[in-house]
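FAQ: What does a ligand-bound record look like?

Like this one, built around magnesium ion:
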Amino acid sequence: MTQLSADVAEKLARIELLCLDVDGVLTDGKLYYTSNGEELKAFYTQDGSALKRLQANQVTLAIISGRSSAMVRRRAAELGIVHLYEGSEDKLPALRELSSITGIDVANMAHVGDDIADIALFEAVGCALSVADAHPEVRARADWVASLPGGKGAVRELADAIVLHKNAAARAEHSG
Ligand SMILES: [Mg+2]
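The answer part, i.e. the structure of the complex:
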């Protein structure tokens, strides 16, 4: 596992809510259209198990997607994600609502994004996370960028790192 700076490790340990973009983060960003005009996306199984482990470690999950899709609603239901916002280019109002519903301060939230629309959320949350194949401007503004691309293990990598650093910080608190 990549050695993280103390600053990033501390930010990961503080995360109480992880907010996820869909296209390019939970998927590889490709949209497939059937001849019926239906939209298809592919999700990565190991991201799902890592996200369930995060929830087991008391991290709340949310999805804020610029697009709207029945497949996303189905994937969110499978993962037990109840906070789902879709179909809005401006993602900030969703983040504010999320904070008031959950009572979790935005400083204790992280957002994983890959595109320009995610930058506004990066500036609001305590921890900005991105994926290897994100837009260069987005990567440049992230606190930490996964070594793997979106839809191919990036979310698993980020989720595993959050669990690891939360557990390490909890152990340090107990022994201290
Ligand atoms: Mg995206």
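Follow-up question: can I read anything off the structure? Yes, for example: The longest strand covers residues 60-65.
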